[in-house]
Amino acid sequence: MRLAVLGVGLIGGSIGLAARRRLDAEVTGFDPDPATLDRALEAEALDRSAASATEASSGAELIFCAAPVGALPGLAREALAAAGPDAVVTDVGSVKREIVAELDADERFIGGHPLAGAETSGVENARADLFEGARWYLTPTARSGGLQYDRLQRAIADIGARPQAIDADTHDRLMATVSHLPHVLANVLVAQAAREVAGEDAVLPEVGPSLRDTARVAGANPAIWTDIFAANSEAVADSIDAVVERLQDAAGRLRAGDRARVAEWHAAAGEDRRRLLEADLAGGPLHELRLRVPNQPGIVAELALALGRAGVNIEDMALSPTADLRFGAISVWVAGPEQAERAAERIRELGHAVSVVDSEG
Amino acid sequence: MRLAVLGVGLIGGSIGLAARRRLDAEVTGFDPDPATLDRALEAEALDRSAASATEASSGAELIFCAAPVGALPGLAREALAAAGPDAVVTDVGSVKREIVAELDADERFIGGHPLAGAETSGVENARADLFEGARWYLTPTARSGGLQYDRLQRAIADIGARPQAIDADTHDRLMATVSHLPHVLANVLVAQAAREVAGEDAVLPEVGPSLRDTARVAGANPAIWTDIFAANSEAVADSIDAVVERLQDAAGRLRAGDRARVAEWHAAAGEDRRRLLEADLAGGPLHELRLRVPNQPGIVAELALALGRAGVNIEDMALSPTADLRFGAISVWVAGPEQAERAAERIRELGHAVSVVDSEG
Questions:
Q1: Which of A217, A297, A312 sits opposite B307 (nearest CB)?
Q2: Which among A55, A117, A298, B94 counts the fewest CB atoms within 10 Å?
Q3: Share of chain B above pLDDT 90, in %
């Protein structure tokens, strides 16, 4: 199969690597940055480089557009103009409605969005197994070519991902809530906290772990996130509206002074959290182990090593230093009561006091 | 000094331990649960136990009420009734306006709130150094006795904490935003996400790390949190109102389709985050290292161990498994560019690809 990759960063480079190894494809790549293109060749993500998107696309059967969200429609249009009548052109953007609406007149375009790679960037981090087991959304419409869809979804499955067709609107609404909304909440929370703290004589040094967790992504990657917010503005704004309604309901329950209704609201959130986060975990519900250790190099290692030796898999971990930075609070999440017990035992053997909090909390 | 501790869980027990060791105090304890009282004696957190709050308080110079928020006013009232005219009675509740308003007629009561101990519970986890370096808010009013305030703040400083006077209203407003609001946002986010996902054919297994981080505390510890929300309902509701305004502003910017205003909003949040979270970190601004490793026991250990050996202190860490649970994304935060570089080098030596994201990111 002849394949083109337009934009050879982490995602494009990984597509190239995976396609060459697993599909035995012949991969031509283009990137507006010549240095990136050279690095992609060096990394063996490509068989050859092209001087333009048009050159890369002409003669290719399957074309992946892997540029930033804002550049995708133009790039896909150029690919469609250069590609043959049976080719399929797809993209990897995290927002789908806009590009699908723009290019839907052409049966050769099918939108896509692999859920992988958020943790790193750059072709130097590309790997053939980046998409192994990852969900890869595809957004065909009534106009999409059947031949094209079949070829695309087979290629994606063959590089190890799990293709799933989804309506572009549904995709964007889903992403607005599970991916974009947390960033919005992080942004407003830190803005609000910064204003509150500014009234005090000093920065609150004892910012709690819950604020730290929520605030972690506030203001992250401005270029990428401004693009995403702009491209999915309607769905994100709708999801903000919905969350505003929920907040107003919560404020109402608090002001009414009705403990039972506050308790009910809080318990329902616990239920929702479990349903969302734990359904995919093997081994049973998450258990949290909380402990307090000296805030020194090597302590986390000792802990993780002891758990690893005991065959306990750490599903998640959060550290927060105490005020004086001499101690750290560590929460470790493991799946199932059996692992939780084993983990607690090992931690106690290391001389740390530990509490096990099951997610029923 | 003769000291009484009413309620001998983690906080009360740690006060007892610290006071005995550092103030050379004689500590009498009471707890409604006889087994807890026995464990406190065993842990040497007390010199002796009393059969009632009244018995423990009579003759004591300094009385700490360390019960759940809802029980504090009654307990403090009983202590004030039994204590001598020069005694000082304080509490450790995380909400202050209500109790201070109720007991302010008595110059011997001064509210307090140590920011420590959230990560564990139970007298078996009590330790003499729990408050070392921790902020300990005190909420004196115009009626509070000067003698009492002086004795209280000195005792608190002597057990290693950093006392700071703050108006009770200000305290509750501050806590509403930096501590209680993140829990509210977590609750509404998971409720919203659960509703969105329920419309799909299956639970979204690929919940992003940002949702995981924000949702972590959703529905946590229902008994404690219902108490806190109830006791601080007005300030929390006000803080919800303020955040609703910010959300409506964000939705407005998104709907207006004005990229520059969205970018400005997002960048300001990044600034606020830095100001809030990084001011207290030695060694410079936080750098995030992102990598992807096999999701197996021992991997986190290997990583943390290598960093520990290299003298790199992990300030924070977040793990999230990929969809197939075969790989995990790990973010590690370290302070300052020098440690970040050293950490990245070690991680590459372990054979993992890593990206360094400085917080300007």
A1: A297
A2: A55
A3: 46
